[in-house]
Amino acid sequence: MDRVRHPHAERLDLVEDLHGHRVADPYRWLEDPADPRTRAWTAAQDALAADVLGALPARADFAARLERLVHAGAVGVPVHRGGRAFSTRRDPGQEHAVLRVREPDGSVRVLVDPMAVDPSGTTTLDAWSPSWEGDRLAYQLSTGGDEESRLYVLDVATGERLDGPVDRCRYSPVAWLPGGEELFYVRRLAPDQVPAGEEQFHRRVWRHRVGADPAGDVLVHGDELDPTNYYGVRVSADGRWLVVSASAGTAPRDDVWLADLDGDGALRELQVGVDAQTAAWVARDGRLWLMSDRGTPRWRLAVADPADPATWAPERWADVVPESGDGVLSDVALVDGAGGSLQVLAVHSVDATDRLSVWAGDGSGRLAEVTGLPPGSVSGVSAPPEGGPTAWVGYTDHATPPSVLRWEAAEPTALVEDERAPVAGEVPDVTVVETHATSRDGTPVHLFVLSATGAPDTPRPTVLYGYGGFNVSLTPAYSAQALAWVAAGGVWAVANLRGGSEHGEEWHRAGMRERKQNVFDDFAAAGEHLIAQGWTTSAQLAVMGGSNGGLLVGATLTQRPDLVAGVVCSAPLLDMVRYERFGLGRTWNDEYGTADDPVELGWLLGYSPYHAVREGTAYPATLFTTFESDTRVDPLHARKLAAALQAATSAEAPVVLRRETSVGHGTRAVSRTVGLAADQLAFLAAATGVTDWGAAGPGRSASL
After folding, report:
1. Is 547 assigned a catalytic role?
2. pTM over 0.90
3. CATH number at residue 200
4. Where's the Peptidase S9A N-terminal domain (predicted)?
5. Rounded to an integer, what distance in angstroms lies between the CA atom of residue 622 and that of residue 42?
6. Domain end (from 211, 235, 259)
7. Are 91 and 73 in contact (CB under 8 A)?
8. Residues 6+ apart with CB under 8 A from 697
9. Domain shared by 474 and 579, yes or no
10. If pLDDT is split at 50, 70 and 90, which confidence band does 695 have?
């Protein structure tokens, strides 16, 4: 890439003493988007981004490829209620998935179409939950990327809206009582009822009557508890048992309470103050089911008696699916076997690839392995709550868009196609190689390496992608961006780093808090492994990540600028000293640590990318992509690091900030995905030595 003239940013002589640490923050003024200096600087960055990205020779080719691949469809796992099946589907050409209902006679109707609600495409369907009878539907919408969900209820038969909007329902689960007249949900307190700056916190669990004024809802739980708590709610199909769970921010631990609504309705402690995660519910057999990593970091499924608190102690739990030696239990569905006995369809992940197996509901052990599952990922399993011999399995892999398979008790080892997602164009043939890098401390790190089938065995432009945090597992998944890169002759690698859940909770905790550097070491080792194995070279290697993955690649470019030629850093966390002050940052301090603690501040300063920039360093070509309506990770992080890198770098490679408006951290319209992904891939193509992939052909590059 040609050398560009970066916009000037005023550098403040601002140094603070924080717990004995001298911490410089020369670009703090960029935290304020309304500051005239920020406005002028941002306008200059917009102009630079337009010039650099608009001149990329591979952009048109990538946009054309992505237009076909992004418009592959997607089908969600159905939820069965009262003989009806509810599911989402997006067809090629649709900007958003629609929510449908399949009637018992097989007819299908659309219930919620975000584009019908808002033809501009900025409204998204965030969540939905049908009543036990299947005659009512609660659903949540947000607009402009703010993820501020508004709750509605509609009549499934007529489509008539019965309730809503109820605001302040971001991340709210819904649990229906039988009859469909009442539900439990989660709502934040009104802004005037909480301290200034805490408007995103202070959730409560409420009991709501459909159609009633939410101001009169009954408070169920949450007073006097941690203001950052997220809550879960579940009600048994018979309406007797209520389960409420709470976690402080994203901490990997749950408090769980159980109430007998046919009794006094009081919530009683099932698990409180324990450093473990437990999901609990009462199923149709009347037993309390517990899926937990308490003492079993790879998780197990057990049962107890909801009416007998003495059985709630973990030593009294009866295992149904015990902890596996090599697999991590991630999901279950209760089904009826061929003889009518209760069975469990269980999902385990082994080295980031999902497996299905069938277990006896009485705890007598495994009955079958579902050998008909191809290598890939299970996005969920579901079965009707009243039971039956059929279950539905969400499936995807590197070349298969999200689809649905069906399991039948009569053939327990097999799966059949139920609903395949359509594909707009031809999906390239992909070869997937699984390999392991060795991290600095000797830990093996698993990688998926994708390349075009039959591509030459020579070093090629390569994108290394990772996340490494919050218990997120990177299992095989359809990615239009990865396929477009591979179709053009490149290599795409996905690293399963510590901080994720690929090997259970111990693997997660090995990459959080004071151990966060392990994640960056794992990622660097993955890059070095790709080079050592001949897949690529440093001059042809790029890294990409978003959100926590943006922190990952931010740390990589500041710690190992020699390792890579290009970086895409999307919606990133980068100033780890002040991250808690903005967006949802305060809810993540269990993952990273808090700057309010002297010891934990030391952890954060040890890798904070913004504070690791060094004058005169040759930094790789870097593209920051941010979203102005992002209410999770504030765009200020990218602004501050972009300014610091632009001032410090001694290389000719550009540092570019691309921003979008009216879009947030999560779901977006498909057409906007194409534009973003094309810019990102074209930027990395230029950084790794490709001027026009369409002309150069697969596996060949043209130097800049």
Report:
1. yes
2. yes
3. 2.130.10.120
4. 13-412
5. 17
6. 235
7. yes
8. 489
9. yes
10. very low
